[in-house]
Each structure stands twice: as structure tokens, then as C-alpha cells.
């Protein structure tokens, strides 16, 4: 008993030992939620003698489920760790046992995105649809929306209709939306496949239809615990309600400030209104933070305090004082990365390991500059979310186009000849391979010589050859950046990505173009295409060995729930973080929570940075509003942005704030209040006009009043005229 409660504070002990009834823990970042949750599991098993198989512990990701399983195994020594899983994972357990109730076999398939795409491909081919009718990514979204919102009862078709009837429904569909939707349902049923929505819907259906099965699960789950409750969605909530319906022992933990999945249907109200939904709810608050230094906590409290829709609560420090939060402004992304590299080397010199250091960012494409600098500085790193920049499909494709122009080699040919589709499939490739082997020439040469052959009728082989020839003829006289842009355009490659709706890939290509441009401007005479290709080859080959001591690079979403001794949060610029896609006040608050999640990952050191430069659309890059949100007294600047830049940034933010409707919520100066303008000096507010977005001010040194836009900052002033 003592061991289980060892090193827990009062609130944590209470959370661990309050086993019966409905318990809600509202906890701050780093306040030991995970510790409390795993100890509670151990307490139930070791102290109360509950069987692990009668406990359900729901986590947000598979990764945290694995970690939780490990922790609980260490605490209980029991190999049976019960149901520790995500909601979807748990539904797989339900269906593996009870899918017979819907006439599905135990061996049903759980579908992932690539399975869905494969099904879409069949439907498009069968019904003559093209990406012009709907891109795959749009089709996947459409299916998701129909399943969750428009046709929430769709699963009844899957369960109750015979395969033939479902097929007929698909065949009778006459518009792209219906064809794709019913085609997909048919394909799913045909292979007994279930996607994430189906897993929960099917489980709920079985529970609703079959009381015996429902009671079996309800009785089995004597205790239910749910982590990251702030990100629960409606279906998951419904499932939870059913599952706890017999014993009524439900324990939930969440932090409203860490809601970052609203865009996927999460609803923080389930956490905030929990006590209204269930009887006799006990609420425990955990605000003491054991992770970060008081300096880091002061900065994050200052940031999250700027969100208007939140319960006011500060994280309370428990650790001794540490280093100040460092903030750096750089002239370019490269300079920013170089600064980070310098700081990392300094941390190493002071005794830190590379593995203690993590670089966080909002969007994948940010890693390009960081990776280049780290490679040069020989800082070992590993990317946790997604693929390394130069290993990404679209980057490899784009570089292969360049190589095709310069070298016409077989590898590049194989990579791009049929991307986008030119009808050069396996049969024609085989023909080229045989031709090339016989005549000892390259595949491209083989193609060029056989363009007239019957086999290439109806293909775009001739256009491809013409493209390569025309670029080969004059690339040496053109800047590489221009060649790259032109070839991505004329080859149809970018168009293909646009039709697929792959915005992230397009962003990555824009980043590649930017890097080529920087390479040209910094290399002078040496900047030939061949030189450039040799230069990037170093990056593409660099993912070989896997030593353990490495700096980690990951997106903020991936970092959820993790902690690291030193955190670098980079590219803190408007348009990146907050993302340029942020269109509403709510979304902006979610971005701020995301920044909060990022910063609260840091234990000993937090380094914030941003760089001037241009966005992909050519607009200037400003420091992020999230940096400006933090009380400047809490940041130690190694290099501060110019005052002019900060003023421009504030203007920009004020303007974009108006688009978000921020002004509607902004407190105004009231008539009679004294204010100070940076140029006009002291004055008295006559009126405030929201529709005009301006205060009317009578300045002391002016004969008539002026309307001063909300964009200009007026400061509160004391003293009568
Ligand atoms: N009572 C305690 N005394 C000392 N250290 C603690 C205590 N509780 C938790 N910790 C430590 O504090 C850190 C944060 O704990 P944990 O990871 O459980 O937090 P969390 O609430 O899940 O965080 P987040 O929501 O930010 O991901 C861990 O390093 C943990 O070991």
C-alpha cells in the first residue's frame, strides 16, 4: 500500500483511492495525471484485489497505451494488464468477441487509409469517375462526414442489407457522392472491413440490440478510467456512457487547456459539464506541476492566460528555480537553425546528452532548414513524426525530375516517367527494360527510340520525352529554381497534387523551391544543377545509421503527453504557428492551446525562436502572436526583433484579429477615459465605435477630435487634462 501511494501529493492520493462512483480530475499540464492513473490501476489490483481483466483504461494513442501497460506491469508485476487501450482498440476487443451478433466473422479487417484508397480506386474504375469528380482526400473526408453527420445511420445498411442489396444501392446511385459512399460501404462489407467509425458504431449497435452482450461487457468492466478526456468526441462519449451503465465506476482525467483535437470532433464540454451528466460527481483539482521550472511555468501561464474561453487556473511550480526561458529572433530560417545548433552544442558542453533535447514545430516542412544545419554541424537527430524532409515522396519526385533533366538516369526515369500518370504501366515498362537490355541503352533512350512503336499508342510517352528534351536543351542557362518551378508545373506534377488535395505536399514543394533559391544566392558560380544535385544527395543518403544519442524532432501534436529536459520550439511565426489556416477565434484559441502543450513539455530548458523572411505567398514573416502574448519580462532575449518589426507584427495581428472577430470581444476604452497615443500624446476618449473599428479621441494638443483605428495601440493614461 505504502509503495503505491509513495511520492503522491494529496490530490493524487485522493484520485488514486477514490475508486467508487464518478470521479473527475481536472489537472494541469505536468501535474502527474499519468502517474495518478497508473497508480490507481495498481491500487485497484494490488490493494482491492480487483482482477485486471475487469478494468478498462482508455488512452488517447496506441503509444500511450503501450507505455501505460508497461508502467502497470511494473507496478503490479502481473502480465495480465486488462484492457488498456484506445477507444478504437477496445472496440476491436468487443467485436472480436461478439461480431457474430452482426454476422461478421471474428477475422474482420480493420481498415486504414491505404485500404480506403484501394477501395476508392476500384469504385472509380468501375464507375468511370476521375479525380476531377472528387479527389481521394475529398472522398475520404466526404465519407467521414456522411458517416458522422449526414448519414449517421449508415451502419444499418452495412449490417442489415445483404451484399447484393448493398451492391444494387451502389449501382443505382447516380451522383458522384452517392456512388462513392455506397460503393465504399459495399466494398467494406464485401471484405468484412471496418474503419474507425464502424468500430464504434458497430459496438454501440450490438449493445443496443443485444441486451445479453451489453450486460456482459457492463458487468465485466467494474472500473473504467479515461485519460485525455478533454479530447473525447461524441461517439466515444456515448460508448463510455453505455459501458459504465452497470457499476457506475467512472474515473476521468483531463486538462481543458490541452484540447487540441476540436477539428476532429473533440468537445471539451464533456469534461466541463461532467458533473451535470452524472450523479454525485467528485471533482479533484491537480494544479501542482512537477515537470517544469518556475520560469517555464510563468511563461506558459502568461501565454494561456490570453485565451478568453477558459477556466482561470495557473500551474503552480514545485521545482526549484532554473534558467530563464530563452527567446531568439533570427534574420533567416537558416540563421535560426544555426542558433539552435549553437545552443545545443552549448548544452552538450554543459553535460546534457543529445537525447535530452527535442525540437518541436507546428508543421512538417519546418524540418528542412533544421535538418540541413544539423547535418552540417554533425548533430545527430531523428524525426519522430513523418519522414525526413528529403526522404518525402514529393521531394524525391521533384529531385528526380531535376536528375532526369541533367542525367536521364534509369532510377529517375522509373520514379517519374509515370508520375503523374502517363499510361506507362508495368507492361510498357517491361518492354522498355527488354529493349534497353538488348541495345544496352538507358530506359529513357529506349523510350525515345520507340516512341513510334505500336505499344506507346494512347500513352503520353511522347509528351514526357518532349518535356525532358526541352528542359535538357536549356537548363544550363537557367537558374535552378526556375527550372524546378517550370518542370513541376509543365510535367503536371503539381497539378496532380492539387487534384489530390495534398496541401502538405504542396507546402513541402514550396519549401524545396525556397531552399533551391537560397542555395543559388549563396553559391554564386558553383550553382549549377549538377552541383546542386550532388549537394542534396548528401541529405538524401543521411538516414543510414541509428545511434541512440540523438536530438528528437517532432510536431507538437506528436509531443502530446511527453516530456523532455530541453525543448526548442522553433518557427514561432505568424502563418506557421499560428497556422495560416486559422480562421476563427475558437481555432485561434486552439492554436494557443497547442503552443501551451508544446511549451509545457519542457522540464529544465525552453528555447523559443523565430525567423524573419518571406512566406510562400511572398508576404513578410512576423514573430508569432504567441511570443508577444508572453510577458516580455519572463523571456530572456538573445536577439530581439527590431521594434519596427514588432510594431508591424502587432498591426498585422490586430488586422487578422478583426477577421477572426476578435474585436467583438475586445474591451474598449469608455468615454471620458484618458489615453495616450504614441504620436498624438495624451487625450480623452469621446466615443468608441465598434462598427468603424475606432475610438474617437479628443487629443489635448489638437483642436478637433480624431477617429483612431483599433489597429493603433492606445494606452491607458492617468491624470486629468
Ligand atoms: N507527486 C509527485 N512528486 C514528484 N514528481 C511527480 C509527482 N507526480 C508526478 N511527478 C512527475 O512529474 C512529471 C509529470 O507527470 P505526468 O507525466 O504524469 O504528468 P501529466 O499530468 O500526465 O502531464 P501532461 O498532461 O502535461 O502530459 C513526471 O516526470 C512525473 O514523474
From TrEMBL:
GO biological process, one term: recombinational repair
UniProtKB keywords: ATP-binding, DNA-binding, Helicase, Hydrolase, Isomerase, Nucleotide-binding
Cellular component aspect of the GO annotation: cytosol; DNA helicase complex
SUPFAM superfamilies: P-loop containing nucleoside triphosphate hydrolases
Protein family membership: Belongs to the helicase family. UvrD subfamily.
Name of this protein: DNA 3'-5' helicase
Domain of life of the organism encoding this protein: Bacteria
E.C. number: 5.6.2.4
Residue sites binding ATP per the record: 27-34
Substrates-to-products reaction catalysed: ATP + H2O = ADP + phosphate + H(+); Couples ATP hydrolysis with the unwinding of duplex DNA by translocating in the 3'-5' direction
The keyword Nucleotide-binding belongs to this UniProt entry's keyword annotation: yes
GO function terms (MF aspect): 3'-5' DNA helicase activity; ATP binding; DNA binding; hydrolase activity
Pfam annotation, one family: UvrD-helicase
Chain ranges of the UvrD-like helicase ATP-binding domain: 6-293
UvrD-like helicase C-terminal domain: residues covered: 294-561
Record InterPro entries: DExx_box_DNA_helicase_dom_sf, DNA_helicase_UvrD-like_C, DNA_helicase_UvrD/REP, P-loop_NTPase, UvrD-like_ATP-bd
